[in-house]
Amino acid sequence: MTEPEKCAEGNLVEYPHPPGPEARRAMHALTLPLPSGDTWTRADYEALPEDLPVRLSLVHGELVVNPRPRPIRQRIARRLAARIEDAAPDAWQVDTDVDVLLDDDELEPVEIAPDIVVYSADHDVYQRPIPADLITLVVEVVSPSTKRKDRRIQPALYAEAQIRHYWRVETDQTAPAFAVYTYELDDATGGYVATGVHHDRITATLPFDLDIDLKAVHER
């Protein structure tokens, strides 16, 4: 882990990998309150303002900073979420960039915001975060600054929280060609196993019936 960076108020922010130039520029002007103890609690995290110039995650009690996504990444996430939502039965709802609670440990909680979340319609949309046991699918759209996180760190956290399905979207910025990699939780190992690589279309029956034209998702 790299050396933690200090915010304007002097509290430490841990990075799982060296922060890029966008995150560093945002950090120069970022002021955050101090956590209530040696590590960040859920209450500390959820009290932070929602309009910060960076994306924040809470990983094992450490505050992790990432830059806000580029428009192309947001566009892909928005289009894919809309198509998943169109296919979703009434029992499920779909949102983007919303906090999910992966681990409610008192000292080392994990609360992060995936690019796309498919979760139970029983959850009150006025309440945050969304508990992991109400989530059936999370999707991450990979960008140059999030490759390690989306390919290695986040899937491990989602699997530990027993979220059944994970999709990773590779764009032409991070791979030779646009593709959606789909995974399902293996109950025997507790990790994800690959179920497909999709370039032009996703046709699947899990987590529910889906038939998505991917060209319309990533065309500029």
The share of residues in extended strands comes to 25-35%
> From the alpha-carbon coordinates, what is the Rg to the nearest angstrom?
17 Å
Principal-axis shape: globular
Query: Which secondary-structure class do the elements indicate?
Result: alpha+beta
Biggest sheet strand line-up: 5-8-10-11-12-13
Proportion of helical residues:
10-25%
- What is the CA–CA distance across the termini? 36 Å
Number of strands: 15
Main sheet characteristics: 6 strands, mixed
Ranges where pLDDT stays below 50 over 5 or more residues in a row are 1-18
Q: Please tell me the overall pLDDT.
A: 86
Following the backbone from N to C, one meets helices and strands in this order, namely EEHHEEHEEEEEEHEEEEEH
What's the oligomerization state? single chain
Count of individual helical segments? 5
